Amino acid sequence: MAADGQREWRAGEVPRARGELVGRRTELAQVARALRPHRVVTLVGVGGVGKTRLAKGVAARLRPELKDGVWWVALSGLREGELLPHTIAESLPMAHQTAVPVIDALAHYLAGRDLLLVLDTCEHLTRELRPVVERLIAAAPGLRILATSRRALGVAVEEVLTVDPLPVPGPDAGRGTEPESDAMVLLAERAAAAVPGFTVTDAGRADLERLCRQLEGLPLAIELAAARLRELSPAELADRLADRVTDRFSVLGETDGVSGPADPVWHHALRTTIGWSHQLCTPAERLLWARLSVFVGSFDTEGALQVCADDRLDREDIPRLLAGLAEKSIISWEPTAAGERYRMLDTIREFGEVWLRSLGEGREFRRRHRTWYLRLAREGDAAWMGADQYLWYERMHAEFDNLRLALDSCLGSADTRIGLGMAGDLWFLWYACGLAREGRHYLERALAAFPGPSPLRLKALYAYGLVLTELGDLPALEECEAESTALAARFGEAEDSLAKSVTAVTAALRGDAATVLKLTDELRVRHSRSPEAMLSVPGLGSLSVGSHARIALGMAEEALGGLDEMRRTCDASGESWMRAWGDSIRAQAELALGRIEDAEHSARASLKVKHRMHDSFGSGMCLEAIAQCAIADGQAERAARLLGLAHQLWDALGRPQVGIPTWVAAHEECVGRTRAALGAPAYDRAFHAGYRTDLDAGIAEALDGAAAA
Predict the structure, then answer these.
(1) What is the pTM assigned to this prediction?
(2) Which of 114, 235, 262, 570 could hold 67 in an S-S bridge, CB 3.0 to 4.6 Å?
(3) What is the pLDDT of residue 278?
(4) Which residues pair with 149 in a beta bridge?
C-alpha cells in the first residue's frame, strides 16, 4: 500500500487516465468489435494522436467481459527486444520463477486463460515482437492482443486500425445547432484545467474553433496549445500558430522518425505545436527539457538534479524548472508509492533528444545518466539491509526502466567491468524484489562479458547463485558454486563468505541439511564478530538457512536460538525482509515443537511483509505454514482453503516450494492430513474455493485471522 493508504498502481494494471475520454465513441465500438473475430488488433497512427488513451478506453470497456481480465504491458521504456517475454511476464500475475524459458512459461500460463493483453508503444520493437505474439496466440486460444504502435506489427492474424485525429469544427461551426466537435470539446476541457475560470464564450468561440482547425484535431497538439492559454488569449494563440513561416523548431524533419513513407499532413501541426511550445519555454527550461530526454519511463527530482545540473543549469533552479515544464504539459507529474515522479511522452522526448544532439550534449548526458544509476545501484545495495527497505523496494521498481537502460549501456560498450559490478550490486532487486528471471538474464550477460577473475565477479556469482536458487535450477547452481569456490581462494574473507553462501544454498536445494548446517555455522561465527558484519546478506542468510537445516535434522529448539539472534539483529537496524524470512522459518520450528499459536503468529508476521513486497514465493510459504497450523488445530476446511489460496501463487510461480525437498514434504503431509480429515469431495470443494478467492482478499483474511473464527 502507498503511504497515504491508497492502493498504488501495480505493473500490469491499466494505468489511470486523466479525465474522461473525449469523443472516440465510434472508435471504441469499432476496436471492441474487431477484437471478437480478430486475435490481434493494432492501433496505428502518428505520435500524439491518442492511441494509448483509446486503448485505455477499450480496456475499461472489455474488462467485465473477460474472465481473466485485461493486463497492460508498457513497452515505451524497453530498449532490448530480448526482454520482451520478461516484460510481459512481469506485467501478469504469474511471478514465474523456474528455469523454464520465459516464453514457454508465458505460453503455458496463458494457454487456459481468457484475457486481453494491451501492448502499449510497440513501434521500436516490432521485429522482436512478431515471434512472441505469434507464439502466444498459437498457445492460448482465449488470448486477445491489442497493440498501440506507429506502424503495424506484421503478424499474419493482425487487424490494423488507423487512429485518426479528432474531428474539428468546420469554418461555419457555431452558426447552427450542431453539437461541438470532439476537438473543440477537448480544447475547452484542457483549457479549463489549465486556466482557472476559463469558459467558452460567444466572443471567443471563433478563435478556439480556428485553433482546432490549425491543430488539425491532434490531441497532443491540442493539450500543448491549451497550456499556452495561461499566457495568451485564444486570438493571440491562433494568430501566432497561423504564421508557420516562423516555425524554426520543426527539427524532427518530415516524419516522426518511425512512420512509413506516406506520413499524414498533420505531422506538421504537431511539429509546429511542439516547436512553438519549446520556443515559449525559458532558455533554462529548454535546456532541462533536452537533458531530461535521456531518461526513459519516469524519473524523480533527485535523478533530474544528479543528471542535469551543471554550471549552465543550477541545482537550486531545477525543482522550479520541473514545475514550469509540468505546467506547460511538457512533462507530467504523478504521485506514486515511490514518491513524486515525472514522465515525458515519447513524442516530446524525441524532440528533446534531437535538441540535445543539436547542442552536442547527447553523449555527455547519456554518460551522466549511466553514472547516476550506477551510483543508485550501489546506494541500494548498501542501504537494503536497513530501515528503509520498503522505500528502496518502491524506488527501484519505479526506476527499473532507467536501471535497465544503464545496464544495457554498460554491457553494450567497453564498460563491461562496470556493468558486472552493477549487476552484482542489484542482487536485492533480482532476488528480494521479484525479478529473478530478468536478474538471470543480466547476470549471465555480465559474467560472459567480463570473464576475468575479480571480487566483482565473485559478488556477481553470489547474486547469480541467489537467483538460481529462487528459480530452482540446481544444475546451473552447481556450476555457479564450483566457480565461486575456485575463485574465492584468490581473494579475502569477504569473498570466501560469498562463495560459502552459494555452496550452502546449493546444498539446501539438494536437500543436504548436514552440509548446510556445517557451512552456515562457519558463516555465523565469522559474521557474529560485529552487528555490522551480521547485517551482510551472507551473515543473516547463514542464520536463516542454518535454522532451516536444523529443523530438517530434528533440532527445532536449537533453530529457535539462531532465529532469536537474527530477530534481534534485524530489529536493531529496522530491517524487514530478512526478518520476515526468519519468521517464516521460525513458524516451521514452532510447528515442529507443537507451539501452534506461536507458529501462526510468526507465519502471519512474515506474510505481512512478503505480501507487501509482492514476494510470491515467500507469501506462498507463509500461507502453507498457516494451513499447517490450521490442520494441527483441527480446522481442516480452513486449511484446505488456505492451500487453495497458496496454489494460486504456486500456479503463478510454476514450481511449488521451489522444489526444496523438506518444504515439498511438509506440503504433501499437510495436504494428506487435510484430505483425510475432510474426505476427498469436501477437500476439493474447499481447496477450489480458496483457489478462486481474490488473492488480496484471501491474504487479508489470513492476516487478521478472520478465517480462524
Answers:
(1) 0.87
(2) 114
(3) 85
(4) 44
